[in-house]
Every structure is written in structure tokens, then in C-alpha cells.
Design goal:
The chain has 325 residues and is of the alpha/beta class. Helix content is 42%, strand content 16%. The longest helix has 20 residues.
Length: 325
């Protein structure tokens, strides 16, 4: 093997996957969350620390040093033979060169896993011209080829329309929309207004943690102890409604306290910095996961539930189909 071939031979650091379960074994539906690039990997690592059951995590990056600092075990280093462990920069061709290795991991993750079956995939990253910009479109296509419900959560770059990074992001979004079940853009003026006065590193950390907390809320759907439960079938039904690929979806959360807690919670949802330039006005379907005090004094009443439904319909429109859990 010559020196050039040795440079290209990069070890696969994904962990071993268990063989498929016996035919008669009970299969548990599983969510796969893939963090790509710096932001995506941090979000995946934050969520891994919450130890949600039946969620598989994977981090993909071109910068091995960043991967070493992550707690989650399933790390996937790509592009090292081309970048010298310096990251992808803005060379989006690196991700495409590594598509075969990514696909090999993906096949292993989908072919296992001791009683688990992946039903829903979340892919998270920033489309700033680097690793995520190149890799997420390929991952979206692989998910579509396996007929998986796939949501791509991406942060749009902060750049001028004529910048190369903006052009690369537009191209990536165009490819993602062809393959992903739904897209969830995040960022924009709302985040800058909320955290814009923070030092840049702290700003990114706050955004990463906010994205992780919101994803934690939606990923945990169906695992709560409320009397009204949602499950993965509800999530997939909403995401696949209409059969159109690349449909934009909105993710937001809010909370309220005291006698006006319902209005306060709805108001905080509607003014979430994660709503980008979107609003829920005109939404066709809405999936609402809520929790409330368990003691009788502060429990949600039938009147309160009716008020919650009314406020959401007022904001979205009477046409909206709301599924509660």
C-alpha cells in the first residue's frame, strides 16, 4: 500500500452494532438522532446526557478533536485523510467523498439491533459550508431510500445573499427538501434578539442547548406519564401529512406559572426565538405535548384545556387539526 493509499485509509470508529433480533422477538420503535458538524454534535451530546430510552445517538464530524470531547459513544470521524484533522472548512466536496463510509455506518445502524427498530430520524447541523452542508443532503437521501420519516433541523448561515456560503446553503437546502420528510429551519433574528449581547462562544452554547432542549421535548413524545399520550405514530402522521417531501415544520416550547399560566405558556411559544421568520398562522396540523402539576390544586381542568385549545386555534386558525398529548 503506497503512502497516498495509507492516508486515505481512515479507521471506522463507530461502535459495533448487535445482530438483528430473532424473528419472534418484540421490536421496540427507536429514534435515531444524528448530529453533524460542530453544532450538530454538541446538540447530540447534550441530548445523550439526558438518557432518554429508545433513542440512538450518532455524531459525525471532520474534526477528530471535537469528537474526543463528546460523551456519546457513537462517533464517526470523516475526511481525515483529506483535511489532516483540521475540519472541513468550506470544502463541501469532502463530505461527498466520504459518502460511501457514511452509508456503511448507516446500513449497520439500520440493520440491527437486539429488539430495536429505527422508525424516525432527526438530523441536526449548521449549513455554513462545511461538514453538515455536504453530509446532511446525503444522509437525507439514505433515509428516504430506507423509507424512514426524517426531520432535518438546520441553522441557516448569517451571510449576505451573494456570499458563497449562502449559495452553498441554498444548494444544500434544495437537496434536503427533495429527500427529507420535513425540514425545521432555526436561527435568524429571534435568536440574535434573545442572545445577541452574549460573547460569541456563549451565544453558540446557548443556541445549542436551546435546540437540544426543544428536540428533547419532541423526542420524548410518547414516553410521558400523562393521561393523554402521543406516540411515534402521531409524530409520523403529522410529518407525513399530504405526502409532500421537505415540508417546513416549526418547533417551539413555552411555560407558564400562576393563575394565568395557560395564556403565559401559549404566549411564550408564539414568541419563541426558535420560530425563525415563521409563525403558526395558517398551520394545517399541530402536535402539542404539555405537562402540568399533578396535585389537584394546580392540575389542568377541563375549562383550562378548552382555553388552551381556543388560544392555539386563535393563533393558527380554525382550520388547524390539533393533536394533544
Amino acid at each position: 500500500m503506497d503512502r497516498h493509499e495509507q492516508q486515505r485509509k481512515v479507521p471506522d470508529h463507530t461502535r459495533d452494532i448487535n445482530p438483528p433480533p430473532d424473528a419472534g422477538a418484540q421490536v421496540v420503535k427507536t429514534i435515531l438522532l444524528i448530529g453533524v458538524g460542530g453544532m450538530g454534535c454538541q446538540v447530540a451530546d447534550y441530548m445523550y446526557a439526558t438518557q432518554l430510552p429508545h433513542v440512538e445517538y450518532c455524531a459525525i464530524n471532520t474534526y477528530r478533536q471535537d469528537l474526543k470531547h463528546l460523551s456519546l459513544p457513537n462517533k464517526f470521524a470523516i475526511g481525515e485523510g483529506f483535511t489532516g484533522d483540521l475540519g472541513a472548512g468550506s470544502d463541501v466536496g469532502i463530505g461527498r467523498e466520504e459518502e460511501e463510509r457514511i452509508n456503511a455506518y448507516f446500513e449497520k445502524a439500520l440493520s440491527r439491533q437486539a429488539g430495536y427498530q429505527i422508525e424516525l430520524v432527526y438530523i441536526v447541523g449548521t449549513l455554513s459550508g462545511g461538514t453538515a452542508t455536504a453530509t446532511i443532503p446525503a444522509l437525507s437521501r439514505m433515509c428516504a431510500e430506507h423509507d424512514l420519516t426524517t426531520v432535518v433541523v438546520y441553522a441557516a448561515p448569517d451571510c449576505e445573499p451573494g456570499d458563497r456560503v449562502c449559495s452553498l446553503a441554498r444548494d444544500a437546502i434544495g437537496q434536503i427538501e427533495k429527500w427529507a420528510t420535513a425540514i425545521m429551519p432555526i436561527g435568524g433574528d429571534g435568536l440574535v434578539q434573545a442572545f445577541g449581547n452574549l460573547p460569541l462562544q456563549e451565544y453558540h452554547e446557548r443556541v445549542d442547548r436551546l435546540v437540544a432542549s426543544l428536540l428533547h421535548a419532541v423526542v420524548s413524545i410518547g414516553k410521558g406519564s400523562q393521561k393523554i399520550d402521543l406516540d411515534l405514530n402521531d409524530v409520523q402522521m403529522v410529518l407525513r401529512a399530504g405526502g409532500q417531501m421537505g415540508r417546513p415544520v416549526i418547533l417551539a416550547s413555552g411555560e407558564g406559572r400562576g393563575p394565568n399560566r395557560i395564556e403565559e405558556a401559549v404566549r411564550s411559544v408564539l414568541h419563541s426565538p426558535m420560530l425563525h421568520s415563521n409563525a403558526i398562522s395558517g398551520a394545517g396540523r399541530m402536535l402539542v405535548q404539555f405537562s402540568f402539576a399533578k396535585d389537584l390544586k394546580h392540575a389542568l381542568t377541563a375549562r383550562g384545556f378548552s382555553q388552551l385549545r381556543g388560544l392555539l386555534k386563535q393563533a393558527a386558525g380554525e382550520q388547524v387539526d390539533i393533536i394533544f398529548g
